[in-house]
Design brief:
49% helix, Glycosyltransferase, two-stranded antiparallel ribbon, single chain, 20 helices, 6 strands, mainly alpha
Length: 533
């Protein structure tokens, strides 16, 4: 993604915009009504704007990063003028997401899920699909992370976000359900019964955010409320949450930030179709009462922590109260190009569905006569040649150039007619080559499967042809010694560009054949790279 550089005048405009937001909001807190929620929303947006302009991107809960932008998009906020040192918030987030993808083995599942949520909201389909692949590969019987005592604090938010953006079924949903149910604390007659949390040194610690995230995820996995096991777990979790309510209507477990816990209650109850106003304390106060009367500090910050996390959670809560939770504003639709008549019958809910339709809409890929795309079939050299030529749109190959191709490859007669022009053009452009034989001749072997190493070489040729010399990233894969020498430089370049990375075990597996879905995802990432330069 090419960063948009802002002039000093535009930076000043961003600061002014943040100031104007504050002027649009009332100077005093209104009473309990829809206007109170709008008031808090405006103040939260103002705070987040100032945070980004002053401090830039901090891709974690406590700063303005992927998750904050995701919530801002849900709220329909125009962040186009928000700039820090000349870089827009959108560009900063996309650059950070691209870097996270390139270093996915070192990035938590929670952060990757937040990245996925925001790029999906931005219509960045190739990045979305790549993150689905990464998280799918990371998932195991114990969530995504190692089975350490605190892994639940990454696993649960990741499952929660995947459920909220409608992508959890592209992973192993059964495995997710089993993991979540297994983590619930069910020691009878214990004050923590029904919660989710962690244990250390034989001491259990209930966690409010983990519990709320687990309940929302289970609710998403059972929308018809027909799974008795899930419904029992949800009810037990809600029972524990209700027991944490304080006299002021707020909620707090342990030493938590009470504002965050109270926001989590409202968001969770609204997600379950329940009225948070019905959960009242012994003094008749609800979580909504507490948020309206106590969330905002005199200096414009929120809660005890006074950071971007409290502001983001308040904005998210206001969206929930206004019935806008987890919906995309009209200005930011999820990009799905479904060409007519080519509607593929075998990719509904596939992790690469959006990318496949987007590329099909551009005429870069196509399916089979039976209406299938065959996403898990291994892509061939004929198909890769056709995809790359349709992407680059060079001058069509002439009859003479096809004759040259026919003379170069001894197996030219085996090349199907639909691929002949593409192969001739790709050969002319220096994108593909053949295989030398002992007698000095060459074969093309168009039906041969394409490995990750081979596709890396092809894509590197395109990158350097279109963008000039590229610097490779240091190869730090666990199987670096097994990478073929002829492909090492190319692998380093596609790794640096975020087009291909490693697997959860930190291997690259250069000889693995590429599927048609994986080829589509890499082709989309390449297209995005070329279009933004």
């Amino acid at each position: 993604m090419k960063a948009i550089k802002f002039t000093p005048q535009l930076v000043a405009l961003a600061v002014t915009a943040c100031f104007l937001i504050s002027l649009l909001a009332p100077l005093v807190k209104p009473g309990r009504s829809e206007s109170a929620e709008l008031f808090l929303s405006d103040k939260a947006v103002q705070f987040l704007c100032n945070e980004y302009v002053d401090n830039g991107i901090i891709n974690s809960d406590v700063g303005v990063g992927s998750y904050a932008l995701f919530v801002l998009i849900q709220a329909g906020v125009d962040v186009s003028t928000w700039a820090h040192e000349g870089v827009s918030l959108k560009d900063a987030v996309i650059a950070t997401v691209t870097d996270d993808i390139a270093n996915a083995d070192k990035v938590s599942a929670k952060c990757l899920a937040q990245d996925l949520a925001v790029v999906k909201a931005l219509g960045q389909n190739a990045l979305t699909d790549r993150l689905v692949i990464i998280l799918k590969n990371k998932q195991g019987s114990q969530g995504f992370e190692d089975t350490g005592p605190f892994s639940i604090y990454s696993n649960m938010p990741a499952f929660d976000l995947l459920s909220r953006v409608g992508r959890i079924n592209q992973l192993n949903a059964v495995q997710a359900k089993d993991y979540i149910l297994e983590q619930q604390y069910l020691k009878v007659k214990d004050v923590h019964y029904g919660s989710w949390g962690s244990s250390e040194n034989d001491q259990y610690y209930a966690d409010f955010m983990a519990t709320a995230g687990a309940i929302r995820t289970l609710n998403g996995l059972d929308p018809e409320k027909s799974d008795a096991q899930i419904q029992e777990a949800i009810n037990n979790g809600l029972g524990w949450m209700k027991n944490q309510q304080k006299a002021g209507g707020n909620f707090m477990a342990g030493m938590d930030d009470t504002l965050i816990d109270t926001c989590e209650v409202i968001i969770t109850l609204k997600a379950l179709g329940m009225d948070p106003g019905t959960w009242q304390s012994s003094e008749g106060n609800s979580a909504v009462d507490y948020i309206i009367n106590n969330a905002l500090n005199p200096d414009g910050s929120f809660g005890a922590a006074q950071n971007a996390m409290d502001a983001t959670w308040v904005l998210w809560t206001c969206l929930a109260l206004n019935g806008k939770i987890d919906t995309q504003p009209p200005a930011q639709p999820d990009l799905q190009v479904r060409p007519d008549p080519e509607i593929f019958n075998d990719i509904p809910d596939h992790w690469a569905e959006n990318t496949i339709y987007c590329l099909a809409g551009k005429g870069i890929i196509s399916g089979y006569p039976d209406g299938a795309f065959k996403p898990e079939a291994q892509v061939t050299r004929n198909e890769i040649a056709a995809m790359t030529v349709r992407l680059l749109k060079p001058e069509p190959a002439t009859t003479q150039e096809w004759q040259i191709t026919g003379e170069k490859f001894t197996d030219a007669a085996d090349i199907p007619q639909w691929a002949q022009e593409s192969i001739a053009a790709a050969l002319r452009e220096g994108i593909i080559s053949g295989y030398p034989q002992p007698d000095g001749s060459f074969t093309f072997e168009g039906a041969r499967q394409v490995s990750r190493a081979e596709l890396s070489v092809i894509m590197t040729r395109i990158i350097e042809k279109k963008l000039g010399q590229a610097a490779p990233k240091t190869l730090d894969f666990a199987d670096v010694a097994q990478l073929p020498e002829w492909a090492r430089g190319a692998i380093g370049i596609v790794y640096a560009k975020g087009i291909a990375g490693g697997y959860p075990d930190r291997t690259f597996q250069a000889e693995n054949p590429v599927t048609r879905a994986e080829a589509a995802s890499m082709m989309m990432l390449l297209a995005d790279l070329l279009e933004t330069k």
